[in-house]
Write a structure and sequence with these properties.
Elements (H helix, E strand, L loop, with lengths): L2 H38 L4 H22 L12 E7 L5 E5 L9 E2 L9 E8 L3 H10 L1
Helix pairs in contact: 1-2
């Protein structure tokens, strides 16, 4: 388990405990409002409204913690490098490595043992771009 996921779980547990305390205090205030109504004959509408609002907010926050966060669109795209042999035309595609650039010499060709070079660097299109391309055609 990574350190980041431990921090997320710890933070989530902290927020859930705070929400539970808020909900508990809201129920106590709601009970106090009903007790005041029973004993004195008038309703404390401010306490009643604030208690109901706090309970509703607590339930909403618990539901939001349980749902997955939306994708923000800042995901790292997959980038690939195409290496080509200048003699036999052999091509191989691999994941991009830091320091790759077009026309950089690469490892010898596995077929003819001649020099190879980086022919192309591209990124894989995500689903949204594929849909957009489909509609533009």
């Amino acid at each position: 388990m990574s350190k980041n996921s431990d921090n997320v779980r710890r933070t989530q547990a902290y927020f859930v405990s705070m929400i539970i305390v808020l909900m508990l205090l809201s129920f106590i205030t709601l009970l106090q409002a009903f007790k005041t109504y029973k004993e004195r004959g008038y309703m404390d509408y401010l306490s009643f409204a604030l208690s109901i609002s706090a309970i509703t907010l607590s339930v909403y926050m618990i539901l939001q913690i349980k749902t997955k966060p939306p994708k923000t669109g800042f995901e790292q795209p997959e980038v690939f490098t195409v290496i080509r042999c200048s003699k036999c035309g052999f091509e191989i595609t691999r994941k991009f490595k830091e320091g790759d650039y077009v026309l950089k010499e690469a490892d010898p060709c596995p077929k003819c043992k001649e020099s190879t070079f980086i022919y192309m660097i591209f990124r894989k299109a995500n689903e949204e771009e594929k849909k957009r391309e489909h509609y533009e055609l």
